[in-house]
Amino acid sequence: MENNENNGNLFQQISRWIRESVTLKLAVLVFLVLLLLIPSAWIQGVIDDRQSYSYEATEDITRKWSDEQTLTGPVLIIPFTRTYPVGNEPKTGEEVMRTAEDRLILLPEKMTANAALDPQTLKRGIFDVNVYSSEISMHASFSPPDWSRYDIDPQRIDWRKAYLAVGISDMRGMYADPVCSLNKETYTAEAYSGLPEMGDSYSSPFANGIRIRLEDSAARAAFDCDIQIGLKGSRSFFMLASGQNSSIEMTGNWPDPSFSGYFLPDDRDVTDSGFTASWNILKFTRPLPEAWISNIPDIENTGVGVELMSAVNDYQRTSRTSKYGALIIIFTFLGLFLTELISRIRVHPFQYVLIGVALVIDYTLLLSISEQLGFNTAYLISSLATTALIALYTRSFSSWRVTGLLAALLVIFYTFIYIIINQQDYALLLGSFGLFVAVGVLMFLTRKVNWYGKD
């Protein structure tokens, strides 16, 4: 009989410890947080999948509109023949000579270019793709080189085959015939692809483009050329500085340009209505000679350009928001747990689970709504809906005061995270400061908690 009473008391003590142990409750909450990280990771995968669909939509549009564009040139191609020994005649011992055709590729002394971009947004389903049309004007000045430097006999130059070349990475983007003139005399341009002298690689900046065949007399002397090209492209536009000294200017009505390439602009002006950027590239700053024989060297290292992008796109912001999901769950649970301790209410672990699931589902709402209405509107709708849902549910087992405190806590969390994810330069600073303050508040509120459950 006494043993039964002792067993009953033991069970009561264990049951009471399970109900009242602060440590056990915290351990359960930690387990629930870890458990809720599983669907949080799944949501991150969903975001990545949707972003990949966006890339597929972008590729589909660029295949039909035109891809990213890189414009190179102009350069002057001068064919010539040279004779060189290949060995000796076995019987007579006489030197055997062979004649072969080669090409000198000459850069202009000066090159100026102006590219005016007219960006627009095309839609594929629910996805947006940034494209543009552009008007490019180029002016270049050429002078004959010192032929002796390249061991070229001027009498062996075939001036009838000399031509100017302009490299265009995606020829599908040309929407008008180029206008070309030499010393104010009009010339006709023709398209080319895969010329051996312009580089064997598909990635060569001159793999595709236009060429202007010159008259014998025009190619022999110094001349100026002017070329106007209408070109469509997607996402970015680059120019390779082909001149020994090059000046390039780009303009466009895009509020969020990203300037990239081997050089940053010397001058730039970015406003809500558009941008203007200019580069002055001297021959001393890039590893190119004034001329060379045969294949194109690594001219890509002279590229400058602009990317048409949003400062932080919707998928990036949704992804960054979801990465803060664990923090929101942790601090929401801590807020509810402290309310338990202070107000002496009882919250079952399953109720914590439901609140955590609501916090996780918030990100699927954010993702799906942002694809239709944009991130800012989606964030407002999803955060308010989640806050209202959790507040109404909390009211079922607590007072209005507790419900209001928890709702206010969620509003503060969501507002703070919104500020962070819209920052590019100060996100880490603000996040670190916010966490520091949150830990400080938590330390203050729990300073008198009886963690050991002793009277």
Features:
2 domains; nine-stranded mixed β-sheet; elongated; about 30% strand; alpha+beta; about 450 residues; single chain; Immunoglobulin-like; eight-stranded mixed β-sheet
Indicate the CATH class of the largest domain: Mainly Beta
Q: Which residue ranges are poorly predicted, with pLDDT under 50 across at least 5 consecutive positions?
A: none
> What's the number of domains?
2
Query: CATH topology of the largest domain, anyone?
Result: Immunoglobulin-like
Sheet of most strands: 9 strands, mixed
CATH architecture descriptor name of the largest domain: Sandwich
Helix/sheet category: alpha+beta
What share of residues are in beta strands? 25-35%
For the secondary structure, the number of strands is: 17
**Euclidean distance between termini CA atoms:** 31 Å
Question: Mind explaining what this structure looks like?
Answer:
The chain has 455 residues and is α+β, with helices and mostly antiparallel strands. The strands form 2 sheets. Strands 1, 2, 5, 8, 9, 11, 13, 16 and 17 form a 9-stranded mixed beta sheet that branches. Helix 2 packs parallel to helix 6 and helix 8 (400-421) packs antiparallel against helix 9. The protein has helices at residues 2-20, 22-64, 216-220, 314-323, 325-343, 349-373, 375-395, 400-421, 427-445, and strands at residues 69-88, 95-106, 110-124, 127-142, 163-168, 179-182, 185-187, 189-193, 208-213, 223-234, 236-240, 245-252, 257-261, 267-271, 274-281, 291-293, 303-308. It folds into 2 domains: 20-55 and 315-445, no CATH class; 67-311, Sandwich (Immunoglobulin-like), CATH 2.60.40. 40% of the residues lie in helices and 31% in strands. Strand 1 (69-88) and strand 2 form a beta hairpin. The radius of gyration is 35 Å and the shape is elongated.
